[in-house]
């Protein structure tokens, strides 16, 4: 088999960007950042237990492939001969037989994992097939489960019930208060940790808040890497609350919930769609919530307003914002470096004079 498709920093054009998430939110982020660089690493949640992914996970013991497949499709080459492959891996079988509902790409990933014996090697091989110039990695090398404390399911609204499974958490009619991963303190994918360590920009979100975004900060090695990396960290908020998981949530509430799960987490920027938070007191409350992360809130038009689009980020608009933040980060780093050099020179002069 071929070598992994990632490339060294010395031979890469553009900043090294890591995007963390899952599902359609990560798909939009990846379509945005691929416009900025060829050095893209997707770090994907592996807790899905529904549909084709759930069936393959239960029957074969593989990590759920659905979100990983979506990330591969988002980064696939636009070359005409690859477009058909991308459409094929996204194709879902119809009918009523054993294959009904399965995605072709899910089956290929499951098969490659069994043949090659390693899910990361399987992902690298499919990335080679799709001529991806970045990488798609699982956040953990093992399949995980999501468990949530949910209120509003009992007669006493103050009583919480424990709900297990990503689908159950995403569709609960109650209010999710807290989520955990099973097993607790799971291992991180080593290559994902390395990618974060060497990144210039890390993007978390948008996506299902409790099942695609927060799980990343519940993996100890990922949190440690996110805390120690020199990369600029950007948190992209959803355009609207999601039925079930975050029904009734304000933008401010999204940040409070994240902070409750990882109190010491820090990001540099929180990207918010301008139309989703009106000017005034609501923005003041949001900035106070962002202060918990020592973050600056950036408002921008990032929504897809085309007919039929519902609460979806526009990749081109999001790319523009991330490019600006990446550039300002580079300028900031350069300025800081210049100040440090100036201070060092002044210290040398003072030492010489003394």
Automatic annotation (TrEMBL):
CDD domains: YvcK_like. Pfam families: CofD (PF01933). InterPro entries: CofD, CofD-like_dom_sf, Gluconeogen_factor. SUPFAM superfamilies: CofD-like. It is found in: Cytoplasm. Residues 329-354 are annotated as: Disordered. GO terms for molecular function: LPPG:FO 2-phospho-L-lactate transferase activity. Keywords: Cytoplasm. GO terms for cellular component: cytoplasm. Residues 345-354 have a biased composition (Basic and acidic residues). One of its GO terms (biological process) is regulation of cell shape. Required for morphogenesis under gluconeogenic growth conditions. Belongs to the gluconeogenesis factor family. This is Putative gluconeogenesis factor. It comes from Rhodococcus qingshengii JCM 15477. The lineage of its organism: Bacteria, Bacillati, Actinomycetota, Actinomycetes, Mycobacteriales. The gene is yvcK.
